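Hello again,

I reread your note about wanting to compare the complex against the isolated chains. To keep things tidy I'm splitting this into two emails, and this first one only covers the full assembly. Below are the input lines as submitted, including protein chains and any nucleic acid or small-molecule components. They are followed by the predicted structure of everything together. The single-chain runs will come separately.
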Amino acid sequence: EVLLVQSGAEVKKPGESLKISCKGSGYRFTTYWIGWVRQMPGKGLEWMGIIYPGDSDTIYSPSFQGQVTISADKSISTAYLQWNSLRASDTAMYYCATYGGSYRPFFDYWGQGTLVTVSS
Amino acid sequence: QSALTQPRSVSGSPGHSVTISCTGTSSDVGGYNYVSWYQLHPGKAPKLMIYDVSKRPSGVPDHFSGSKSGNTASLTISGLQAEDEADYYCCSYAGRNTLIFGGGTKLTVL
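Full-complex prediction:
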């Protein structure tokens, strides 16, 4: 069974750094892209970017390029989403999901989500 | 990249059908047969309902169907059931492993 398990909810202050995680199991982690999707409070889903854990090839949405860093550690089947300096506007639910690449361009398995709250 | 255009809300009575549209451009919806649809229930992770415009993953009920014409994709839910009440999002491939979501549609089962 494919499972993506995300790290727990975070409460941070503006300016702080944060790294949330997404651990995959039940499939070959290095051969499936992992994507990150944001849902701000009361808003829709937004595609942030994807990473191929096999070689760490990463593609960002133009809206998120330079705002976050996506990485992966294939030795522990875990992908990460990182901020160097959080803003209140980063308050959102963040989901990771498996993505099949350009011939299977959809998200089939999803993590449970990580709620990030940024408030002074 | 602007979000794909979806109606903010749709509604229908149990047993009836509803269709949710998703309009993009020739660079996304119209350019590829790679539209997917996701169902979001409050407090739960999104669920893939349709991929490649009209294919249903295993386990998705067959009263969900998808189609596309030009730059507009559609999700049709026939024989509405109470548990279909949720938010629905379309998503299109936009080339070079980039994706774009729709703004989301709230389905109310009356």
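For quick reference: The radius of gyration of chain A is 14 Å.

B.
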